[in-house]
Amino acid sequence: xxxxxxxxxxxxxxxxxxxxxxxxxxxxxxxxxxxxxxxxxxxxxxxxxxxxxxxxxxxxxxxxxxxxxxxxxxxxxxxxxxxxxxxxxxxxxxxxxxxxxxxxxxxxxxxxxxxxxxxxxxxxxxxxxxxxxxxxxxxxxxxxxxxxxxxxxxxxxxxxxxxxxxxxxxxxxxxxxxxxxxxxxxxxxxxxxxxxxxxxxxxxxxxxxxxxxxxxxxxxxxxxxxxxxxxxxxxxxxxxxxxxxxxxxxxxxxxxxxxxxxxxxxxxxxxxxxxxxxxxxxxxxxxxxxxxxxxxxxxxxxxxxxxxxxxxxxxxxxxxxxxxxxxxxxxxxxxxxxxxxxxxxxxxxxxxxxxxxxxxxxxxxxxxxxxxxxxxxxxxxxxxxxxxxxxxxxxxxxxxxxxxxxxxxxxxxxxxxxxxxxxxxxxxxxxxxxxxxxxxxxxxxxxxxxxxxxxxxxxxxxxxxxxxxxxxxxxxxxxxxxxxxxxxxxxxxxxxxxxxxxxxxxxxxxxxxx
Length: 514
What we know:
about 525 residues, alpha+beta, Pdz3 Domain, 4 domains, seven-stranded mixed β-sheet, six-stranded antiparallel beta barrel, 29 strands, elongated, disordered N terminus, disordered C terminus
């Protein structure tokens, strides 16, 4: 029996055979009409041999943002910073080892990379304080590759801003600080910097939020962005699409030591004020009030008979900052501010929390007068205060006292004996009662009250003895089912709110005279 192998047939014979087979199939299953129609239809070439036409590009109706022109315009003003860090152990002292007395080798210098940007043609550069904080020497690389030594003009650790100066011998390209107050979540921003030593790198994203307090310092007011920020981007500029700097890239939230799309920039409005002081004086001068404050929680508002507890004010911006302690001979003390006052406004600015107060005081000029609005015994009043100057070694306190969201009750009080005063290192002017015992698993324990705390006040009133403190606590508890204890711990004073709404019977405070 013969068999055909198509691969060995000539092309002409293969076509003839294929046509014959096709005709035989049609004749066996179709009428003559269908056959005639099929015969007049031109044969289509196999798909494998069809010609593929090139797809011509067309202009899309909508385009994604293109930052090429912006980057070309601003990149010459962005610089890379190399810091030679001071060795941590550079004493060169001889040390005793298991092998005898020997002098260790000098530690090798360590370099750190960062970013910065020029703000004038004379070579003034803005960067982060943490980029140059421990510098032995600093050098700057311009966008054209020129490397110049840099001098540190001034640093401000509280806002993480530093100013450098280079001498290039000719005017340098620089960029302008914009208005960060106009920045809105959702708008496009571009970051330029030196991530991982890769100078001139550009990333883009949007503003995620503003006014972020990330616990980095007393004056946190960061712009949150999702543009990738990595190590080495610190100190670099954050641009809006008009080419103005609205922030200085400073921090990232990073569980894996790299960018996860959550970065933070110092707003340009803050940068402008700090840089002006650093250029003029080499340091930053800030106002000083002299109080330690803490947030006003719902429990604290109830314990102190504040309007929030009566439902008259539910706006968090009106909560205020509770004064826990007033520094002696401070502007606050001279103005008559007392522990237990709730500060709600300074120089026309509303104060919703301790952070707002710290920012308002810092922004005020030293020796300037300002009206301060506060609540005392539930009543609003205004006092005039003349602010002082914050010392360089001081840090404006934003409070953060004991977490008092849980009910608090169940303590035993004892008098302050000479032995107790010596053991706790209490000054002679401190009077009140010592917390001798806190019942385990009690509301007091949950609120963070500890044995050794010194109760110096109950509500707005001072207490001078253990019986007086116990009686005041009972009176407050019966009247309002809430008590505010003013306690002294490790030299710091703070209020602790005790909510007794859910406390059972037999949980009252007692006096231990033993």
